[in-house]
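Reply to dn_fold:

You asked what the input looked like. This is it:
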Amino acid sequence: MDLERQHILILAPHPDDEVVMCAAAVGRAREAGAALSVFYLTTGVPARKQLWPWDRGSHGDRVARRRDEARRAAGLLGVTIAAESDVPTRGLRNSLMQARVRLARMIEDQGITQLWVPAFEGGHQDHDAANCLAATFADRLLVVEYAAYNFLGGQPQSQTFPDPRGTEDLMVLSDVEQVVKKQLLSLYASEAGNLDYVGLDRECRRPLAQHDYGRPPHAGTLWYARHQWVPFPHPRVDGTKPEQIYRDLAVFLAGHRK
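and this is what came back:
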């Protein structure tokens, strides 16, 4: 992949995804002469009403802390923060039209030549929504998707696609790259309990594959739905049924094509 003089925009559904999916790839791209920036598509924090009642008063502080972590991570990565969003985590699918307008303007104004985005793999509903968003620009520039995590076969899978197409590029991280990635992950202290699944030995990417966004990415339980057995609303459990998520993505695509 020729990266010299490329301007790459990373679509990070949450502050930390730019590290989880492609920290080493960012470093290699910078060494090759590419310029990189990141668009944080959500705050990475659940909506105030989804927090425990006793935590709702600190919602603003939680968002501010996550953004501060993102700024420090971006500085270490050497990427520019192109834009942030006030959309809460798990809310991207309901804000895709607005995100698309902002993204189209960035691509035009900043001369973006590539989009990097998490894979469509059922890891998080916002990841799948971001992948769907990026797909609407695939006819105008290169879109690269990065494996993050999935639950294929009922087992945690990290940095591997649930549906290999033969176009994957597996990047084996050097010892130095692994140390740097671990350091970057540690900057997101607010997410320490959610990042222990991230593998440090590899990153995997491919040109955006053709996906059916109206259906789940793979059979069986999806990563974000694996704790939906919890019998009450829990801030760390996404209770949205997968069929609703992919119905909403299909509606977005249908509206975009009109």
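The helical segments are 17-31, 59-77, 96-110, 125-135, 175-187, 242-257.
Hope that clears it up.
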